[in-house]
Amino acid sequence: MPNRPTGVRPLLHPLHGLLLAFPVALFTVALLTDITYLQTAEIQWTNFSSWLIVGALLGGGLVLIWSIILAIGARRHAHRQPSLIYALLIAIMWIAGLINAFQHSQDAWSSVGVTGLILSIISMVFALSASWVAHRTVREIA
C-alpha cells in the first residue's frame, strides 16, 4: 500500500463511489430507452425513462450533497481543484436530470423528442465526466 502524505485523502470514498454508480448507470440506460422510444414509438419506453431518471436523481442527490461537503472540506487540501470540478459536474448532471424529469413528465407522445434526448445526453455525459474526474483523482493520490 503506497504511503500518502498526512492529511491527503482520495476524493472518492468507497461508499461515495457506490452511490455515484447509480446516476452513471441509470442516466445511461435512460438515454438508451429514449433512443428506443424514438425508434419504436412505444410509449412504455418513456415510462421506463421517467423511472430511470427519478432513480438517478435520488442517487445523484445523495452524491451531490456528499460532493458539496467534499468541496467545502477540501479548501486547504491538495485536491481542492478536482473536488470543486467534481462538485460542479455533479451539480450540472443533477440539474439537467431534474429538467429532464420535468420534460419526461409531459404528455407521453411529446415527452422525449429532441429536448428530452439532448437532456438525457447531457445528464449522462456529466455523470460519466464526474465519475472519470473522481476515479482519476483517486489514482493520482493513491
Describe this structure as you would to a colleague.
This protein is elongated. The chain has one domain. The chain is built from 4 helices and no strands. The protein is mainly α and 142 residues long.
SSE map:
Blueprint: H1 14-40, H2 44-73, H3 80-104, H4 113-141
Short description:
This is DUF2231 domain-containing protein. By secondary structure, the chain is mainly alpha-helical.
Could you tell me the radius of gyration in angstroms? 17 Å
- What fraction, in percent, of the residue positions are helical? over 70%
Oligomer: single chain
Count the beta strands. Answer: 0
Q: What is the domain tally? A: 1
Biggest sheet character = none
Q: If you average the pLDDT, what whole number results?
A: 83
Low-confidence stretches: none
Task: Please give the alpha-carbon distance between the first and last residues.
Answer: 8 Å
Broad shape: elongated
What is the overall number of helices? 4
* Classification by helices and strands: mainly alpha
- The share of residues in extended strands comes to under 5%
Q: Please trace the helix and strand order, writing H or E for each element.
A: HHHH
Protein name: DUF2231 domain-containing protein
Transmembrane segments: 12-31, 51-72, 84-102, 108-134
Domain DUF2231: 13-133
Keywords: Membrane, Transmembrane, Transmembrane helix
